[in-house]
Amino acid sequence: MDERKDLFIGGEWTAPSTARQIEVISPHTERPLARVAAAGVADVDRAVAAARSAFDEGPWPRTEPAERIETVRRLAGLYGERRDELAELITAQLGAPISFAKRAQVALPWSMMTAFAGIAEKHPWQENRPGMYGQDVVLRREPVGVVAAVVPWNMPQFLTVAKIIPALLAGCTAVLKPAPESPLDALLLAGLLDQAGLPPGVVSVLPADRDASAYLVGHPGVDKVSFTGSTAAGRQVAAACAANLTRVGLELGGKSAAIALEDADPAAVATAVRFSGMGMAGQICNALTRVLVPADRAGEHADALAATLSAIRIGDPADPRTQMGPLVSERQRRRVRHYIDTGVREGARLVTGGTGPPEGAERGWYVRPTVFGGVDPSMTIAREEIFGPVIAVLPYRDEDEAVRIANDSAYGLAGSVFTADTGRGLDVAARVRAGTFGVNQGYTMDPAAPFGGVKASGYGRELGREGLDGYLDVKSISIASA
């Protein structure tokens, strides 16, 4: 078993303040993979103090953007050399199929580093604006300060890069807190950050439990919190930040709807639903989990979904042929099974799947892809985020009702519409209240496009120019004639 005894604090590998450890369990074998040091509150204090000193007194915030861009490009080069190792770590920790881990969990973050560097090269770091009263105004975009980046386990490198890289390009310093389920890839990244030549204190990496995480987001030395996680946890983070007037960005849960119009191909819709989340066994915040279909074609769509999802190859995530692995933990499997039982109890029609394990999966936290038909919008499986491979098919009478059902949700992260008429699809997209949307596809995580939600899915944006702006303050300087 691998054992990591040190934490990366202030640019150095150092012993933790406590003897607590995090045990990383394989969701495929149910056996321990590694033990890593768990940060305590004293370690959080050290990391924030190092970041505070590096921001207030160190060189990083005062370097030219071009120098920070060059450092990020150097990091991308180092990252590319270790991408296979990163993918293998993510597969072992989370049960993500190795093909999905290489493509989405590692290659996409790698490309995002270069994309962010390109965005930063074109960013208006300073601009002049004529004032209303005859005086000149200079606008400077400056780093917001010390950033606490709190990342969940489901897409750890993607979400880490989406926070840390724009923060670094902006000139911020940061404390990264990975989830207890996925500390190994975060610690590997810490080594790469060190090799990239960042000044001391610019980034610290603290695997930790919930108590240390709560202490970090409420720390008075932090200027911005960037949090991705559940809506319930997001509310607690927002409250902690409010006490210190700390800026916060929240990317939270989702219950995204795929609206199939009457001219949509059921097979194409089913394929898009599969690729929106089944690579991580439905454990994706913007997965299309509500499929809204014309009532007179409901059976056709349910059957197409059942055929597509039941054909997914489930098994050992390290096998390149595997298309879906296990859920991340026994607790997560119990949660998903509970929702499946609830759907049956409330009267939804189980089309395929169920609570039993897939064939050949005697060990591991596996759940079969599950499709429910005849789902009413009031049912629990249509309203709550399940975070598993469970799809609800909801019939509607006309387009207006489809839009009403899509909007009848506490969440507003993503959604999609499927139709042969692209113009009509864009009209539907304009009517659905969501931060991101796809036409004839699940939402594409394009590094150039901002990503985030509305309502209980949070606020703030990551990726794109907007993702960089989230780590910058705008200073206005008025200049009177001498």
Automatic annotation (TrEMBL):
Q: Where is the Aldehyde dehydrogenase domain?
A: 13-477
PROSITE patterns hit by this protein? ALDEHYDE_DEHYDR_GLU
Which one of the record's GO molecular function terms can you name?
Answer: oxidoreductase activity, acting on the aldehyde or oxo group of donors, NAD or NADP as acceptor
Q: What are the UniProt keywords, alphabetically?
A: Oxidoreductase
Active-site residues per Swiss-Prot or TrEMBL entry: 251
> Family per UniProt?
Belongs to the aldehyde dehydrogenase family.
What PANTHER family does its record include? Answer: ALDEHYDE DEHYDROGENASE (PTHR42804), ALDEHYDE DEHYDROGENASE-RELATED (PTHR42804:SF1)
Q: Per its record, how is this protein called by name?
A: Aldehyde dehydrogenase
